[in-house]
Amino acid sequence: MSEIFELEKELLIPFFKRQRVVFVKGEGCWLYDERGKKYLDLVAGIACVSIGHSNKYFIERVKEQLEKLVHVSNLYYTLPQIELAKKLREVSGMDKFFFCNSGTEAVEAAIKLARKATGRKRLVSFTGNFHGRTMGALSLTWKEKFRKPFEPLIGEVVFAEFNNVEDLKKKLSEEVAAVFVEAIQGEAGVYPAKEEFIQEIFELKEKYGFLVVFDEVQTGFGRTGEWFAKDIYNVEPDIIAMAKGIANGFPMGAVGVKDYVAEKVEAGDHGSTFGGNPLACTAALATIEYIEKNKLVENSRRMGEFFKEKLSELGFEADGFGLMIGFDKEKAFDFVSSMLEKGVLVNATSENRIRIVPPLIISREEVEFAVERMRLSR
């Protein structure tokens, strides 16, 4: 398949550094390359493929909608959009929703909503946070290598140290519109916030009047062993950004807000041509329904604990909740390559950090298979 590698260089803008493998099929937690070799997928399209590759229930639901209606724009009403909003209200506890096509779009919408609802401009993010690569979301993203080449970004963004309440207090004032929180930092390598840190944010909210925005793009829809990471910390944000696992890999994003945020919005403040189209909404509904019917939130919790136990036996001290797991590994990129050769896909977020985010359907046997391959790759 060297021809494909050469064609990629010729035809595609080189934004991505890819592993040298060409996948042609998927089934459950497994992917198959063009030679028929199978790989256990512990990446899941970066935490997107919640209910597994080629899920029959998902395919039938999407196929049925595909044969009815794909897109009419938000100039008109469609049933799947309303049905999805009702289901999201049920599982998220938020009141009203806006639909888009990705996580970074959800964050962009959250920025505008926070500024409109409060009348303030300043935003606070944290060291280690990753919120996306479009200009607003990028402004909230910590790593300089992502931000520096594209400055000037949007103004009035300040960073506080993650898990450091005292530093956060120094950055707060009555000019702050919102504090953006990744309760479990994903792109950084799976680092959870301390419970007392999250509680302090909500106490400070009462003092300063800012909104709390939870970026649940990676943590939502059962990934952490709860429907959302907010449920781990027993808090209710004002705004939640969602995407990734919402539609099993279909491009879909959403923002959920409390009523008092939505009340400040006027028609025309924001929009999306493709966001919330009938096909995307049906894909999301099918995914959420399958998670519910098959108790995958619970499976995420159980298999996550089991995975961490097995990693501990190998000497890895794993962080995270549910099936969102990170651990330190020297020469992490070499480890990724070694695991690829042994038929397991893992992701390195840095030179010394591995992230594991498999489909929520993963079994004990598949976890044991992965850990045994890791033992051979140490």
Report on the structure:
By secondary structure, this protein is of the alpha/beta class. It folds into 2 domains: 237 residues, 3-Layer(aba) Sandwich (Aspartate Aminotransferase, domain 2), CATH 3.40.640.10; 49 residues, no CATH class. The protein is 40% helix and 18% strand. It contains 15 helices and 17 strands. A 7-stranded mixed beta sheet has the order 4-12-11-10-7-5-6, sandwiched between helices. Helix 3 runs antiparallel to helix 12 and helix 13 packs parallel to helix 15. The radius of gyration is 20 Å and the shape is globular. The model has no long low-confidence stretch (mean pLDDT 97).
Number of domains: 2
- The overall average pLDDT, rounded, is 97
CATH fold-type name of the largest domain: Aspartate Aminotransferase, domain 2
Tell me what portion of residues adopts beta-strand conformation. Answer: 15-25%
What's the CATH architecture name of the largest domain? 3-Layer(aba) Sandwich
The largest beta-sheet arranges its strands as 4-12-11-10-7-5-6
Number of helices: 15
Main pleated sheet: 7 strands, mixed
What is the CATH top level name of the largest domain? Alpha Beta
Helix content: 40-55%
User: What gyration radius follows from the Cα positions, in whole Å?
Assistant: 20 Å
Q: Could you say which structural class the secondary elements and strand pairing correspond to?
A: alpha/beta
How far apart the termini lie comes to 29 Å
CATH H-level superfamily title of the largest domain: Type I PLP-dependent aspartate aminotransferase-like (Major domain)
Sequence stretches where pLDDT stays below 50 over 5 or more residues: none
Question: Using DSSP, what is the number of strands?
Answer: 17
Cofactor: pyridoxal 5'-phosphate
Protein name: Acetylornithine and succinylornithine aminotransferase
GO biological process, one term: L-arginine biosynthetic process
Pathway: Amino-acid biosynthesis
